[in-house]
Specification:
By secondary structure, the protein is mainly alpha-helical. The protein has a single domain, classed as Amino acid/polyamine transporter I (Up-down Bundle). 65% of the residues lie in helices and 2% in strands. The strands form three sheets. Strands 1-2 form a two-stranded antiparallel ribbon. A two-stranded antiparallel ribbon has the order 3-4. A hairpin with an 8-residue loop joins strand 3 and strand 4. Helix 5 runs antiparallel to helix 12.
Length: 508
């Protein structure tokens, strides 16, 4: 008997840490449940787009962004089923495709992907803390004189009650997910179901109760300015609407290969409905002033109160449901981001320490890194906008690399088994999507000021949120360089021309 698999009488096999594998316990509906986090990303940013694009502009561009996300989820079916053994989703597809041409693309794309998903923890933790304090402890709002805080806003170290609540939420999600995949999925079912209740009321309640006012649906930005501003916002919206691809990150944990495809299609179709009807419901129910007053998330509660009628108790109930939805997003981010880090390490793209599973067969070390990273973001940064804009660059880079990677894989590995194969039309769509995302990045970086929400902090004359993005990608490359040259003791290669073989159990 080998040293790695030892048995004793009456006991289960003891599996060494390095030989543990992700457990295949999920079905496609589990992946769909995980994707229910995506609408909660919408809630955190939606109100700001109303102020910049107006009502019809907001509805149009959010729907367009989600439509693009759905198209991308559709084309990702091919690489997802080509690499059912790859944990980490589109980031690992990008690495597989690009390593024959430019090895640095994979590490940069994968690290950028992780940073984007990881940032959900800090952003939603901050939102939850703010909502709780505003509703139940307004005297502890940092803007109120006498509120407890350690340090001052803008300082390198700033702790407030909302931040402490956010940190507690991050630690709770970490604790639950390190105990096994099934616990995280079960939490997803619970919080996802709770989130759908206020969402359904916002989407359709105004129509049913007569509170929907179509006269509030107007174009406030027209002509060239609308399209340029819309392109900038499409760059920021992608952080939310492209998130349906997360279900592909769990490919090795699905019981059947086709579960990945089914999860992608169901998640994108459902999210497309949400991204149209939620902005429509909010725009027709609330005035511009009401939306602006609750931009950080309170506008949802205002809409619910207006539709249903009610006072403080009803507000508290639906606020709890909203917080549950934000926790769902944090749970999904932990599950997805940690598997991205784990996959990076297993593919030799980052430090070995991250490529290890705990006794519950989940990447607990990667989850711990996620946790520490996001606690640092909450403590050190006061602006969610800086976090979002900085992490978004890596996310878009990953999508561009994955989309172009589909085309490269057709060229470099034409005879590989493809259980799902895109036809010529969809390959053309894939190329168009890659170009479209490049355009979004250009306008998002070049005209970020058009959002009206620039951070106001500059580094070398540029907005801080835009400078931090390239820094994050550089760190990812340095980690790869350390792994390659120090840990693996190999020479750095610009291209890897070694033979690539498909998984032994992959069937065409």
């Amino acid at each position: 008997m080998s040293d790695t698999h030892k048995e004793s009488w009456g006991a289960a096999p003891i599996i060494e840490v390095e030989d543990r594998n992700l457990l295949q316990t999920l079905r496609w509906w589990d992946g769909f449940a995980v994707s229910l986090a995506v609408p909660s990303f919408l809630l955190g940013v939606l109100a700001f787009t109303f102020g910049s694009l107006g009502t019809w502009g907001t509805i149009f561009f959010w729907t367009l962004s989600m439509f693009i996300g759905a198209l991308q989820a559709f084309v990702y079916q091919e690489p997802a089923m080509m690499f059912p053994d790859k944990s980490g989703g589109i980031a690992l597809y990008a690495n597989e495709a690009w390593k024959r041409h430019a090895t640095i693309v994979g590490p940069i794309a994968t690290f950028g992907y992780w940073a984007a998903w990881s940032a959900v923890l800090a952003i939603n933790g901050n939102l939850i803390g703010t909502l709780i304090v505003d509703q139940w402890a307004p005297n502890q709002d940092p803007a109120v004189d006498g509120a407890w805080q350690l340090g001052t806003q803008g300082s390198p170290f700033h702790i407030t009650i909302p931040k402490i609540i956010g940190i507690i939420c991050i630690l709770l999600i970490w604790l639950l997910n390190t105990r096994g995949m099934r616990i995280g999925v079960n939490l997803t079912y619970l919080t996802g179901a709770l989130l759908l209740i206020p969402l359904a009321v916002v989407m359709f309640g105004g129509f049913l109760t007569g509170k929907f006012d179509s006269s509030q649906l107007t174009w406030t930005v027209e002509g060239t300015d609308m399209w340029v501003t819309g392109l900038v916002w499409l760059y920021l919206m992608g952080w939310s609407s492209y998130g349906v691809e997360t279900v592909a990150a769990f490919s090795p944990e699905y019981k059947e290969a086709h579960d990945t495809r089914k999860a992608l299609l169901s998640a994108s179709g459902f999210s497309l409905l949400i991204y149209f009807f939620v902005p429509l419901g909010v725009a027709g129910t609330l005035t511009a002033d009401e939306i602006s007053a609750g931009a950080t998330g309170g506008y949802i509660v205002t809409a619910l109160e207006k539709i249903l009628g009610g006072g403080g108790a009803l507000t508290s109930v639906f606020l709890i449901l909203l917080i549950a939805g934000l926790l769902l997003a944090m749970n999904t981010a932990t599950m997805d981001g940690s598997r991205a880090l784990y996959g990076i390490s297993r593919e030799g793209l980052s430090v070995k320490w991250l490529g290890v599973l705990n006794e519950f067969h989940v990447p607990a070390r990667a989850m711990t890194v996620d946790t520490i990273f996001n606690i640092a973001l909450i403590v050190l940064l006061d602006s969610n906008l800086i976090i979002l804009a900085a992490s978004n660059l890596g996310y878009f880079f990953c999508h561009i690399a994955a989309l172009t990677g589909i085309l490269l894989l057709r060229k470099d590995r034409p005879n590989w088994p493809r259980p799902y194969r895109l036809n010529g039309f969809w390959l053309f769509v894939t190329a168009i999507l890659a170009v479209v995302n490049i355009v979004f990045v250009f306008f998002g970086l070049y005209r970020f000021d058009l959002t009206g929400y620039a951070s106001g902090i500059t580094i070398f004359g540029a907005d801080a949120s835009l400078v931090l993005g390239p820094v994050i990608l550089l760190i990812g490359f340095l980690f790869y360089l350390y792994r390659r040259t120090v840990q693996d003791k190999q020479k750095f290669q610009w291209a890897d021309k070694s033979e690539q073989l498909p998984p032994a159990d992959l069937k065409a």
